[in-house]
Amino acid sequence: MNNPKFRASFSYLNLWQSGRWEEAIKAYFKIDKYISRQMAEGSDFHEEWEKHIIETKTLPAVFGGTPLNNPVCEDKMVIPVYDWMDLVIKPDCIDSPVLHEFKTGVMSSTDYVNSYQPAVYAVGLTMKGILIDRIHIHLYNQYAKKSEFSMVWVTPAMLKNGLNFIETVGGEMHTYFVENNLYERFGAKPQL
Amino acid sequence: MKITIDLDELTGLIAEGEKIFLKPEAEMALLKILEAEEAVATIKDQAKARLLELANELNPNFKSLSADNLRLTCRAYGAKFYIEEDKVSEVAPELYKREVTLEPPTEEEVNKLMEAGMPVKKVARTVDTKAVEKFVKEHRGMPFGIGEYPEDKRPKQLSFSKKGGKDE
Predict the structure, then answer these.
(1) Residues of B in contact with A151 (CB under 8 A)
(2) Ordered mean pLDDT values, 10 residues apiece, chain B (168 residues)
(3) Which of A123, A191, B127, B130 could, after both became Cys, cross-link A162 (CB 3.0–4.6 A)?
């Protein structure tokens, strides 16, 4: 039997790499889907900001209201990486050569910069042929009503590390799913 | 401006010990290190100030920038919070520490405080070095109750500087 293609996303890979295997499996196969209040608030903010950007072609006021050139928002992309894996990304706002990512909550924007998320998105966009040379992380802490901004350059080293992360962790997950018949048990396709 | 430092030469001089004091080349080598250190410190400060300007122009909420081998982080220093003085009686006491600075008490006052049962944690007395040195010079002897630590028991640190410059 041909195994289904593994659909990697940063959130699944990150859970698996952090040792939260059960959560990763539940998230991947959409078992016991739980949405916290913070997640719901984050979604609401993202919707509001996407609408603002489409209507005004500027960043949301909490992030400075800077004019954008040709913003493209919330476009989910499925990018073939290998014959056994696709990469799924959903960039918040591409305004080439900048990718703008919006975050909410109490974490620092530096935490996102230090995670693999920028690298995963950079890999996906590069493979898709979309030019970005930097990623702007805009964070809004809705509790303290404060904003933060961090930036990360997209470099060959960053792309190499990102692809290595996707291959290694994605490979582990896919192998585990195959060896433990999880695709058959929970349904072949993840509901992304 | 170019500064050339021969680290191998300096390492050799250090290994030979006494030549640090005897060879003129040793003095030049040390001076070059000082000049380079000063120049690098100045350039680093200028770079930081300019980068902070640029970061604020890019985005007033700038927090960090990550590149392959470098990370820039902007941190605020100093007190983050303050107490509104007109509301101080209503502020939860566990949220702040109170520190009261008094005029230095006399020995009599310290004794009275301890006799009265005040929880005196520590009484620190620091000799006024210049006042004692002046006393010794004027009276040709040590004042009563003050001792002097032997020179060979006090820790030492070598410093060197350009003539006319500040000690490193």
Answers:
(1) 58, 62, 64-66
(2) 74 69 73 84 88 86 87 79 80 77 84 85 77 83 80 65 53
(3) A123
Which residues of chain A have a Cβ shorter than 8 Å from any chain B Cβ? Answer: 63-64, 108-110, 113-114, 136, 146-153, 155, 157-158
Phi, psi of A176, deg, nearest 5: -65, -45
Please state, in angstroms and rounded to a whole number, the distance separating the CA atoms of residues A80 and A10.
Answer: 15
- Rounded Cα gap, residues B144 and B142, in angstroms: 6
A113 contacts B64? CB cut-off 8 A: yes
Q: Which amino acid is at B72?
A: L
Residue type, B24: P
Reading phi first (left if > 0) and then psi (alpha if -120 to 50, else beta), residue A187 is in left
Phi, psi of B125 (to 5 degrees): -120, 125
Q: Which of A63, A137, A150 should we substitute to test contact with B (largest number of B Cβ atoms within 10 Å)?
A: A150
Give the C-alpha separation, A123 to A111, whole Å: 19
What pTM value is reported for the model? 0.73
C-alpha distances (whole Å) from B59 to each of A134, B54, B64 are 14, 9, 11
Q: Say whether the ipTM exceeds 0.85.
A: no
